[in-house]
Design goal:
The chain is mainly alpha-helical. It has two domains: 86 residues, Multidrug-efflux Transporter Regulator, Chain: A, Domain 2 (Orthogonal Bundle), CATH 1.10.1660.10; 38 residues, no CATH class. Helix content is 52%, strand content 6%. It has a three-stranded antiparallel β-sheet with strand order 1-3-2. The longest helix is centred in the C-terminal third of the chain and has 18 residues. It starts with a strand and ends with a helix.
Length: 145
Amino acid sequence: MSDLITIGEASRRSGVAASALRYYEDRGLIRSVREGSGHRRYPRAVLRRISFIVFAQRIGLNLSEIGEELAKLPTDSVPTGRDWSRLSEPWRERIDDRIAELERLRKGLGECIGCGCLSLNQCALANPEDRAGRQGPGPRYWIGS
């Protein structure tokens, strides 16, 4: 079994489109080697990096932030569980913030947004004299102060 896999196999095994893999490579998030034919071949360990990228995107990191995080990992060996754990620990607060925001959104689904922009009938009760409007534009009670 070769230690290198094709872009098609990397795509199939990771569930990420080949075009995205090429884009990740262009951004320096993953690396390939080129054989005589010029075709990309990836070390099998790239599948872990791709999984990390997908996970990090799901929790809200952008590709620049992901690149900064991946730069902290060893490039000459397969990252260990300890490496991944150390890297992801600071994200807990970010995840907790997103959970709290989603809970606020869920609570507000059946109520007036409280900012004066959606339900004039209800907002007269929930937001008298447009108090939320003085805090700035948009759904102030949802996005925080």
